[in-house]
């Protein structure tokens, strides 16, 4: 592995760690909004898996794109199917975790920031799949497309930065009380 590709891996790993710590802060900052905490905790779990699996996933060659896509798709499901997942966790009677899930059920509201985050994750899955298809074309034919391969790092960086902005916006709104239980109940009455 050359030095330049090693720098990119280290940069990505450092960014993931920074985002992970930011998400921990977001979880605590959004204590008045169970929905935002659910989203922040879901992303925190996904980022933890990403930090733990990223180095290994890079060694899997083409499987890397599939691993990253499955991770993004699982996070999309955790956000979009939050009500079903929270219901299942609440029924398991797992102490604090079940109480947290039950709290998310009573104040369920999908926000525009969450929808934007899901859209960003969906674009990430598409980019990963196109990169995988491009890799397979290079590997099994004489055609050598490098469009996504050459643009993969910048595309993923932009998607990561956009996702951080969406979560930051969501957290700021939660800290301001926009998604607190009282505000949700007031908006549902109107």
From TrEMBL:
It comes from the Bacteria. Keywords: Membrane, Transmembrane, Transmembrane helix. The chain crosses the membrane at residues 12-29, 36-57, 115-134, 154-179. The keyword Membrane applies. This is Uncharacterized protein.
């Amino acid at each position: 592995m050359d030095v330049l590709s090693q720098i990119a891996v280290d940069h990505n790993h450092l960014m993931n760690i920074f985002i992970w710590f930011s998400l921990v802060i977001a979880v605590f900052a959004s204590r008045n909004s169970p929905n935002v905490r659910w989203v922040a905790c879901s992303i925190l779990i996904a980022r933890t898996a990403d930090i733990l699996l990223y180095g290994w996933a890079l060694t899997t060659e083409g499987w890397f794109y599939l691993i990253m896509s499955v991770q993004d798709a699982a996070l999309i499901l955790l956000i979009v199917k939050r009500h079903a997942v929270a219901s299942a966790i609440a029924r398991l009677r797992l102490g604090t975790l079940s109480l947290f899930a039950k709290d998310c059920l009573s104040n369920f509201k999908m926000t525009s920031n969450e929808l934007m985050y899901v859209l960003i994750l969906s674009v990430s899955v598409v980019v990963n799949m196109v990169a995988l298809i491009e890799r397979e074309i290079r590997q099994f034919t004489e055609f050598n497309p490098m469009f996504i391969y050459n643009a993969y790092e910048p595309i993923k960086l932009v998607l990561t930065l956009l996702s951080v902005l969406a979560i930051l916006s969501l957290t700021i709104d939660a800290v301001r009380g926009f998604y607190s239980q009282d505000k949700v109940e007031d908006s549902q009455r109107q």
